[in-house]
Amino acid sequence: RANRREQTLLSRLFTALVMSTRKRKLPPSAQAGEQTPKETLERTTRAEGAHEVQDQEELRSQYFAGNDENGAKLKFSFFNQPCVDLAKAFLGKVLVRRHCDGMELRGRVVETEAYLGGEDKASHSAGGKRTERNAAMFMKPGTVYVYPIYGIYLCMNVSSQGECSVVLFYINEYIDAVGEGAAVLLRALEPLQGQDVMRKLRAAKRRDGARALKDRELCNGPSKLCQALDIQRCFDRRDLATDSEVWLEEDSEGEIPGRGEVVSAPRIGIESHGEWATKPLRFYLRGHPCVSVVNREAERKLERKACCHHTKTKGHVADDLQSS
Fold it and tell me: Which of 176, 185, 298, 316 has its CA 20 to 30 A from that of 159?
């Protein structure tokens, strides 16, 4: 007979599944009754809290070891952080797109935007609105959200940890998440590998006779990077932590050429959303040539802030010398 704690856990699991409008099919092993209710509860308990997610990844690797052939590939624990933190953490990471012939296209992330859901009126999930189109925003952190704009272009986003979000697992398999639908938009990349292929993919969407694009122009915009890396609409709802055709890696070079401070500026193209249009939720590497749009005012604010910090630091050092 289940004790009080087991009953509480079962109640939480049932409530979360009812709240979610999208449910996932349980794994065959669970349907076949290979796990006892007690074992299921123990595994569900281990999934509670972000600090325990790593245990789940290690367990999954025992059964799906072939999925992580590249040690640099970032796991669920990287994506499982608040939206603004994830948007900043993306900077400097490498997005990889592998084609069916084995060719890998690579680009370093240099610009992102955070869409918080909830009160963020510029977000597709504002007010907790969940539709068939934006369902990926409410799914497991690291889920790809691809949506069309102007009927012909695509934008790629990645879901993050939202406020009050709950991530549920059932015998090492992800079921669903309940949250406010937060996600990070990838705005610009620095091409690192496969530039010739990227150029051909971009040319297929341009008019005949158009000049050849420079490397820095290949991925300096959300739709441009989707074209250059051949990110397709069918990539929507894929798991960036486990997918074999698109994933994120740590940068093996360590030092990023031309990388400066991180600039925080208002997002692009959301002028009609009131106060949310001015909030500094776009992040980019200052001075990087592949950034889509430079915000001089935001960069001046960053300079003033750095200057004030330097002045205060010098003052503290002087005071310490005098007191000694």
Answer: 298
Q: Dig out the tokens for 145 from the structure.
A: 């959200």
pLDDT at 61 over 50: no
Per-residue tokens: 159: 């879901």
Give the three-class secondary structure for 273: coil
Nearest to 185 by CA among 104, 120, 131, 275: 120
Residue pointed to by tokens 């950034």: 291
CB atoms within 10 A of CB 233: 10
Helices (H) and strands (E) in the chain, counts: 9, 10
Here the tokens at position 318 are: 């002087």
- Are 237 and 136 a contacting pair, CB within 8 Å? yes
DSSP 13-51: HHHHHHH-S---PPPHHHHTT-S-HHHHHHHHHHTSSGG
Task: Check if the beta carbon of residue 77 is closer than 8 Å to that of residue 169.
Answer: no
Separation CA 218–CA 199 (nearest Å): 7
pLDDT in tens, 166-198: 444 443 444 445 568 999 999 999 999 999 999
In eight-state DSSP terms, residue 99 is -
What one-character DSSP code corresponds to residue 50? G
Is the pLDDT higher at 14 or at 2?
Answer: 14
Q: Which helix (H) or strand (E) holds 7?
A: helix 4-19
pLDDT band, residue 199 (cuts 50/70/90): very high
Taking the CB of residue 207, how many other CB atoms lie within 10 A of it? 6
**Cα–Cα dist 148/188, whole Å:** 17
Residue 239, helix vs strand vs coil: strand
> How far is 195 from 200, CA to CA, in rounded Å?
9
Q: Would you state the structure tokens that stand for residue 322, as one six-digit string? A: 């005098």
pLDDT, one tens digit per residue, over 39-49 is: 444 444 444 44
Question: Whats the size of the chain, residue-wise?
Answer: 324
Specify burial of residue 277 (Cβ count, 10 A radius: 0-12, 13-18, 19+): middle
